[in-house]
Design a protein that fits this description.
Blueprint lengths: L1 H14 L1 H4 L9 H8 L4 H7 L6 H5 L4 E4 L14 H20 L7 E7 L4 H12 L5 E7 L15 H4 L6 E6 L21 E5 L2 E2 L3 H7 L6 E5 L2 E2 L3 E4 L5 E5 L7 E5 L5 E6 L4 E4 L7 E6 L9 H11 L4 E5 L29 E7 L3 H13 L5 E6 L1 H4 L2 H13 L7 E5 L6
């Protein structure tokens, strides 16, 4: 017993050598310390710098400022009380201090979550400071609980924002539609280095979106989510590689897209009044879903025009319920007619998602199997309700086996749990 105790004491004594010896953390190069701190929210990074006196100056030169998810979470906040107001005031003082003490003129990334409790003038000063610091990535998330909020950040019309030549990524995200979301950017807007643009719940009027996009000459990725675009959608971008449009209320608009180098496209919308599309010779993947309202009917020419252009993709994903409100009684009657001689050789795989097995969905499957002769794989993923109805699945499987298909084409019928 005594020997064991001595052995244990020796081990403990040896373990203190490193602690009492050289301070290895403080001797790390500044570049490595910056890299480590870049993985932390700015609030945590500043707290970490207290561990070492030498790190104090490092905290004033961090190139990644992340002020997201700073508010104390106490369930879902439905209104702002005294605690939230005090917390916001303290946080604004913290941001003021960080930016005031910051010693570098080149901030690589800046992300900020804010709400209607913030002081507009202070927010605008922060934005001006950041935009003048050669920022490369800028993300702003604004949460307004009140529909009639008077919070109006002037980011969209500030000169410092509209002429930021260093910006490569811009992410603007509102959490609900209000008058504060109107995108009235200056006419002099110019983003010569912007490659990634992500916009959510913004309102565009007087062709502001078209003008904005046209002044981003090397834009490669564009994401529009739940925006309101009064003038319709017109995208003419030779450099664009990735496009995502989701629920932007384009049912009465004409959608024009000219992007010859597009690699991926995701279009989940109410069917627009018309499509004007150039060819997409480089397209790899297309993901299409049409939102339908009860009683809506859409002309098949809109669908045919879209799928003709997207057929250059190698993989086409379609939400099967997109076909429920189309006026397509049957493929045999040539309601959807394409030239069989123009069968796209690139399209090898099609995936139907949320398949309910309705007649119009089956007609759509027949259509693609008839006119797309180079298909190798057709995957049909059952909806949640169909996945629970094994008897109906068996009946549909027998119907699918009877549909003519290209000689080398395999049809896979999966439940929702089997979809990878």
């Amino acid at each position: 017993m005594v020997l064991k105790k001595k052995k244990k004491r020796n081990i403990l004594d040896n373990s203190n050598v490193g602690v009492r010896g050289e301070d290895k953390l403080s001797n790390l190069p500044d570049a490595l310390i910056h890299h480590i701190l870049s993985f932390l929210p700015t609030k945590c990074a500043m707290s970490t710098c207290i561990l070492s006196k030498r790190w104090k100056h490092v905290s004033n030169s961090i190139q990644i400022l992340d002020f997201r998810k700073w508010r104390t979470q106490k369930g879902t906040i439905v209104f702002f009380g005294k605690e939230e107001k005090l917390e916001t005031w303290c946080f604004m003082n913290f941001v003021d201090t960080v930016l005031f003490l910051h010693q570098r003129r080149d901030i690589q990334k800046f992300y900020l979550d804010l709400d209607e409790l913030f002081d507009e003038s202070r927010v605008n000063k922060w934005i001006s400071t950041i935009m003048n610091s050669k920022v490369e990535e800028f993300g702003l998330s604004i949460k307004l609980l009140s529909f009639y909020s008077e919070f109006r950040p002037s980011i969209f019309c500030s000169d410092s924002f509209s002429i930021c030549h260093s910006l490569t990524l811009l992410d603007l995200n509102f959490h609900r539609i209000t008058d504060a979301n109107k995108f009235n950017i200056a006419n002099t807007v110019s983003f010569p280095k912007l490659k990634i643009l992500r916009l959510k719940l913004l309102i565009f009027v007087n062709e502001t979106l078209t003008r904005f996009i046209s002044n981003c000459p090397i834009l490669e990725e564009l994401s529009l989510t739940q925006c309101r675009i009064s003038e319709g959608l017109c995208i003419v971008k030779p450099a664009l590689k990735h496009l995502s449009v989701t629920d932007c209320g384009l049912s009465k608009s004409t959608v024009k897209i000219s992007a010859p180098n597009l690699l991926t496209i995701s279009f989940k919308e109410c069917p627009p009044a018309d499509f004007v599309l150039d060819s997409f010779p480089s397209l790899v993947e297309a993901d299409v879903g049409f939102y339908m309202h009860k009683g809506d009917k859409y002309q098949n020419r809109v669908f045919v025009k879209l799928f003709e252009k997207l057929s250059s993709a190698k993989l086409l994903k379609i939400y099967a319920n997109s076909f429920k409100s189309t006026e397509i009684p049957s493929v045999q009657n040539d309601d959807w007619s394409l030239d069989p001689n123009c069968s796209p050789p690139h399209l090898k795989s099609i995936k139907f998602k949320k398949f309910d097995g309705e007649q119009k969905e089956l007609n759509a499957v027949r259509f693609f199997l008839k006119y797309f002769g180079f298909l190798e794989t057709v995957t049909i993923v059952a909806s949640e309700s169909l996945s629970k109805d094994h008897k109906k699945q068996l009946t549909l499987a027998k119907l699918l086996l009877k549909i003519p298909r290209p000689a080398n084409c395999v049809v896979n019928f999966l439940s929702i749990s089997e979809d990878p």
